Amino acid sequence: MTEALLAQRPIVMGILNVTVDSFSDGGAFLEFSAALAHAREMVASGADIIDVGGESTRPGAERVPVEVEQQRVLPIIRELAAEGVALSIDTLNASTAAEAVRAGARFINDVSGALADADMARVAAESGATYIAGHWRGTSATMNEFANYDSVVVDVRNELRLRVDALHAAGVPRERIVLDPGLGFAKNAEHNWELLAQLSTLVGDGFPILIGASRKRFIGALLPTEANMVERDVPSAVVAALAVNAGAWGVRVHDVRMTKLALAAQQKWENAR
Ligand code: PMM
């Protein structure tokens, strides 16, 4: 089901965070239609996959009840799947992953690499979806305490290998695993840059690699303090192009249009070599 997308390079995953705090009756349809409109705009701009998330995993973020998470994401997934859009569900929860795949998602994007929910590896195996395993330590609340590495590249690589072993043991075939070093998850800015600079090491292990640098704090640190979020899109697009140049399979981004332009330049450069 995802073979064609896994064979394609590079892919652009557009971020659809449906993480509003209240879904009041009046606001629900507005939020729903606004989310759909944004997803359609990203598809029109060339997004290959739309990544739908109903719970923020940022450092310090509070957990959302699983019913609320599902109310946010499932109607959007159903609608976009019916329109033929390739979708991934960004969740830590196995039950949300299972429901999302039933609703039409083809990828399960779990930043915890199946550490947050003991049932996730089984769901990943049984669902038939392609599973994106992120590297993380701790939880959203505690991850900053775990940002200690002997060598961040060696440690992340080894810990991702352990996740692959666990997924494989649960029945997820290697061909359905994508790895993500989890920039910002139990990592400071230097860790993130080091992982990016050594990306070819991770790529060398043979799994498709997804990179999520877009608008993250370490990107924001390049800008003056008064800069707004949207100003992070230029350095995010540069990092996306460099990541693809280093062999990444895909990039998870907010500004699809700008990323596609950066990747078009990268592809021209590559093709002319
Ligand atoms: N980062 C966030 C959420 N989901 N998924 C993957 N695979 N990789 C990431 O780096 C990642 C993710 C947090 O960023 P956001 O709050 O801007 O979505």
Automatic annotation (TrEMBL):
Keyword Transferase: yes
Domain Pterin-binding: 10-264
Gene3D superfamilies to which the protein is assigned, alphabetical: Dihydropteroate synthase-like (3.20.20.20)
EC number: 2.5.1.15
A Pfam family reported for this protein in Swiss-Prot or TrEMBL: Pterin_bind
Biological or metabolic pathway of the protein: Cofactor biosynthesis; tetrahydrofolate biosynthesis; 7,8-dihydrofolate from 2-amino-4-hydroxy-6-hydroxymethyl-7,8-dihydropteridine diphosphate and 4-aminobenzoate: step 1/2
Catalysed reactions, semicolon-separated: (7,8-dihydropterin-6-yl)methyl diphosphate + 4-aminobenzoate = 7,8-dihydropteroate + diphosphate
GO biological process, one term: folic acid biosynthetic process
GO molecular function: dihydropteroate synthase activity; metal ion binding
This protein's name: dihydropteroate synthase
